[in-house]
Amino acid sequence: MPQEQSQIRERQYTDLREPRRYKVTIYNDDFTTMEFVVKVLMEIFFKTEAEAEQLMLNVHRSDKAVVGIYSYDIAMSKVQKATLMARNEGFPLRLSYEPAE
Questions:
Q1: What pLDDT is recorded for position 46?
Q2: What CA–CA distance (Å, rounded) separates 27 from 92?
Q3: HEC-encoded secondary structure of the chain
């Protein structure tokens, strides 16, 4: 008697979720020039000149501002690049990244 082959397949479910996002925050200090902050925002965070100036003014008035929301690797990389750029220019500019809500 020939054996029948079954055409039934079990479905496998995978739990796919969006990767966690991180917000990058830039902080105000009394030593970093406004021009340098605009330069960092344009070169590292790819903001337009108008956006960079507006963000810089927000930081100046509020002591901090969220620059953008990115995946973990990109947020960490941008913070490191901006911090290194600031240290090379002799500025104590501080940035951080934390999970976004």
A1: 97
A2: 10
A3: CCCCCCCCCCCCCCCCCCCCEEEEEEECCCCCCHHHHHHHHHHCCCCCHHHHHHHHHHHHHHCEEEEEEEEHHHHHHHHHHHHHHHHHHCCCCEEEEEECC
- Alpha-carbon gap, residue 52 to 63, rounded angstroms: 15
What is this structure's pTM? 0.81
The pLDDT tens digits of the residues spanning 29-44 come to 999 999 999 999 999 9
Residue of 39, 48, 20, 53 lying closest to 81 (CA atoms)? 39
Count of CB atoms situated within 10 Å of the CB of 54 = 15
Report the amino acid identity of residue 66.
V
Cα angle 41, 78, 27; round to 5? 60
Is the pLDDT confidence value at 2 over 70? no
